[in-house]
Amino acid sequence: MNPRLPPIVRRHIVEPLWNWTKRQGLLEAERELDRTQWLTSAEIEQRQLTALRSLLTRVPVINPFYRARFDAAGFDPAALQTLDQLRALPLLTKATVRHETDALLSSGYDRTHLMAAKTGGSTGKALDLYFTEEVSRLRNAFGRRRRTWAGWRVGEPMGAVWGNAEYATSARARLREWLLGPTITLDTMSMSGDAVRRFEAEWQDLRPTLLFGHAHSIYLLACLAGDLGVTGIRPTAIVSSSMMLVPHERAVIERVFGVKVTDFYGCEEVGGIASECERHEGLHVNSDQLIVEVLREDGSPAGPGEFGAVVVTDLLNLAMPMIRYRIEDMAEVSERPCSCGRGLPTIRRIVGRTADFLVRRDGSRVAGISLIENTLTRLPGLDQMQIVQDSIDHLTARIVPGAEFTPAVSAELTSYFESQFPGARIDVELVTAMAQEANGKYRFSICLVPM
């Protein structure tokens, strides 16, 4: 088949026909999301309150696990008047989801007829998740909205930089991909100069417009492309996801490819959570489908400029409700709304997992991403860095050195970390490459100290 089916044909003919024959309703969901993003913040909050009231009224009827939780908290969904009242309910933790998977499934839903997903399980403890096809469709609609914010249009081919890539193998899957929009993939688990050149050749043949993938993997591609003189990978839109996008890496990606990066944040448990728009002034929360709280350690809402734990309530998934689910990520609250005019609230940035926060002797914590930003952007010769804290008194800075790395840089790096962690021993370890996790991701900081 000719892979160059014009995107305009896919967009205006194939997509509507496919949507009609499959009774998917994806295009209708997209049109609704296109409309609601421009509502005022007050209108969006009222829509959330209506959806939340509906969710909390239905869940205890079909889910004994939550019925017991509501009763224990003395929570009456009928009395819900403000979103703040949601905080009367306890947090749902990963451990609870892991151990109470069966209990979290609502009655009236056959597990064998639900869509299933599994978290990456970077700690070795994956979660099993279930949701309906309708929920999946609505999540996909949000995914397409955020890609349009980056500059991609429906029907255009895409290029992915992903670990453990999955390819269309059946004739039906290949036909669907050709009709709706083909994707070429660079597998980050086998990234090399030859692989990048093959990816460039595929890019030249297919001409994708969107490049998406793990933030750090796109950065590695940009570095390899720059070193090899590869100039044939020319996206018009870039979406980074799955990992924190640090300023140092964003700058390299944008310099090599000449395109602004649109950062995206989500998780398997609830789908897409927030994304940058074309203004890049923070990440717009997917308030059509979620309620997102950013909380201090005492459970109160974090204020502008403060870090806090991310807690999400999925407004869609009745089959396996996620109500006040603590993701174990940390975010910084925005100090001002985005200038784009959308009513969707924003968070300024994601600052890492709770496990990515390192611990000082006095018990205070510091975001590993902040340490990375303060060194990679200031000291020469630090191509990549990962900080590992294995005890309260010992940290190792793993460095992939660049051409400008010198013993003096190593000494200055050590001195900086000693100032941040008084009394701790600091080791600098030079490596040729950072080890990836099983899912192809890479962590900037790892805290092994029990919290």
Cα-to-Cα separation, first versus last residue: 56 Å
Question: How much β-strand is present in the residues?
Answer: 15-25%
Helix content: 25-40%
What general outline do the C-alpha atoms trace?
Answer: globular
What's the count of strands?
Answer: 19
Structural class: alpha/beta
How many helices? The count is: 13
Mean pLDDT: 88
- Please name the fourth-level CATH homologous superfamily of the largest domain: ANL, N-terminal domain
Going across the major beta sheet, what is the strand order? 4-3-5-6-7-8-9-13-12-11-10
Main pleated sheet: 11 strands, mixed
Give a description of the structure.
With 451 residues, the protein is an alpha/beta fold. The protein has helices at 7-22, 26-36, 41-62, 64-73, 94-99, 101-104, 133-150, 171-180, 193-206, 215-228, 247-257, 368-376, 407-420; strands at residues 115-118, 128-131, 158-162, 183-187, 210-214, 237-241, 261-267, 271-276, 283-285, 290-295, 307-314, 325-333, 346-353, 357-359, 365-367, 382-391, 394-401, 425-430, 445-447. The strands form four sheets. The chain has an eleven-stranded mixed beta sheet, sandwiched between helices. The chain has a four-stranded mixed beta sheet with strand order 18-17-16-19, covered by helices on one side. The longest helix has 22 residues, at 41-62. 37% of the residues are buried.
